[in-house]
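Why run this: before we spend reagent on co-expression, it is cheaper to look at a predicted model of the complex and decide which construct boundaries make sense. The entries below are exactly what would go into the expression plan.
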Amino acid sequence: MGHISLNQVTKSFGDVNVIPPLDLEINDGEFVVFVGPSGCGKSTLLRLIAGLEDVTSGHIEIDGKDATEVPPAKRGLAMVFQSYALYPHMSVRKNIAFPLRMAKVDQAEQDRKIEAAAKALNLTDYLDRRPGQLSGGQRQRVAIGRAIVREPAAFLFDEPLSNLDAALRVNMRLEISELHQTLDTTMIYVTHDQVEAMTMADKIVVLRAGNIEQVGSPLELYRAPRNKFVAGFIGSPKMNFLTGATAAAHGAHTIGIRPEHIEISREAGAWKGKVGVSEHLGSDTFFHIPVADAEDTLTVRASGELGLERGEEVFLSPIMEHLHMFDAQGLAVR
Amino acid sequence: MATQHSRAAARIMMAPAVFLLLVWMLVPLTMTLYFSFKKYLPLRGGDLGWTGFDNYVRFVTSSSFWPSVQTTLVIVGGVLFITVILGIMLAVLLNQPMWGQGIVRILVIAPFFVMPTVSALVWKNMFMDPVNGLFAHLWKFFGAEPVQWLSQASLQSIVMIVSWQWLPFATLILLTAIQSLDREQLEAAEMDGAQPVQRFAFITLPHLGRAITIVILIQTIFLLAIFAEIFVTTGGAFGTRTLTYLIFQRVLESQNVGLGSAGGVYAIILANIVAIFLMRIVGKNLDA
Ligand SMILES: Nc1ncnc2c1ncn2[C@@H]1O[C@H](COP(=O)(O)OP(=O)(O)O)[C@@H](O)[C@H]1O
Ligand SMILES: [Mg+2]
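The model came back. Tokens follow.
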């Protein structure tokens, strides 16, 4: 079980309205990612669901029951904090046992659950260490272990990977995805990193200033962003935007085209520009090319090496079926 | 401070300070040791030559010695107990967001700025005086017989006065420690189902371990030597004669410098015993 629904939820800190009225359905077993720029209210929203903050108005339902006034411990949700929030004076075993101890689970049952969690998370050899003696990735796993043993209705993660180095982050991303496959429990995951969102989510919730900009599967958001903000936020490198006469030629205020949807040619094409900086990744090359009417320099992806020199004049053509059009308000038009 | 050169420079720079500290410590210590082996009565013949361990034997065999050690330990223990317990409670309280927090914090720290002599006199004359004291009025208001604080409950009174003085110190150290507690830890515990009392016992208190250790160690050093509070209140009467006070009486009232010095050496030994004892119990908290 783990169906969560938010109904007209708002949150203000004093006069500052952080979450305007917001509706959201999170289905049982779903991996939902809240993504958005820093300070947009992702953590606040997660903490509202956890019960660590009181809603200013609106209702939160968990598994069909109104949980708005229910204290955090009684909501059956487990949270993994960005700082891990491990108890520094307790061994790994005691950390993981803490929620069980608070729930007065008997000792044999506790041991069984701890062993199982430690085995699943590769922590068996570290059970008697203190958190201070562990690496970042291990601490992260202890925090997850502490959440798992409670067998919660849903897991809440607040930017759990942001303190890890890049290589470890890729690993942990996979581990958390695998965990979701095995446990089949609802997970709500907060991040500002759209790559994490794209790779892990069943459903992405894009937030801006507390507002939900769009909800959908990663590919839905990639293929059909509802507005310019989502279009620019999802996808890497980000989508190119062009305005002015170039956009007007397509009957739009702004047009958007992803770097991977532009064809590059030495002979002929829709737009003309001189090659600026090139980034060679081996498999791909990214060219940055200033073009008339572009909001920024145009980023173009090419497979492999093209042998283009800096300053060389090239022609660019968008693949028409992947062209996104936006009106003056930034809303997508089809 | 890694290279040979910078280490040498550092040593030269520190030398004056180290030298000064050594002189500060060693001169009185050596003089105490020197006098403790002498029969030295300033008003009755002055330096009367070496006496070996005579002073040491006389000091311990005097009927006042063991009671004074006991009094010292009772005062130190009592004050530590009260200041640590109340200090933790006050720190927790002051850490709550509330109206007028700044003012309240300053008020709580204020007693620490009052000189021991002054605060002891204020307590003696304004609170504990059996006729005009505030407590006497309070007792009378409820129809009770006023307590003669400094004679009937002398030791408790001293403990109370000294605790009042040292409570701000304990509170301040513990408050800063509490403020450094990661809020997410408390929230994690809350989500794990810990009630407020359990959160305090399992998260806050262990976090305060090191600060409590520091409070205990520092206060012990100062409390072993309290003097002014006793001098201006009971003058060492009614069972409030600490080891420090006994030494004072031997040197100044009996004008026996040799005997007092031997007492001083005993005081050093006592302080070290207490220190070792405390380090055994709480010292492990200081390891990171
Ligand atoms: N306890 C608080 N008091 C006042 N303002 C807060 C508090 N917590 C968060 N905010 C504000 O709410 C906004 C959203 O914060 P947060 O949810 O932490 O953003 P995110 O996690 O998306 O980076 C920020 O502008 C932040 O300053
Ligand atoms: Mg955040």
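Residues A 42-43, 159 surround magnesium ion (ligand 2) (CB under 6 Å). Chain A is about 25% helix and 30% strand. Bring this page to Monday's planning discussion.
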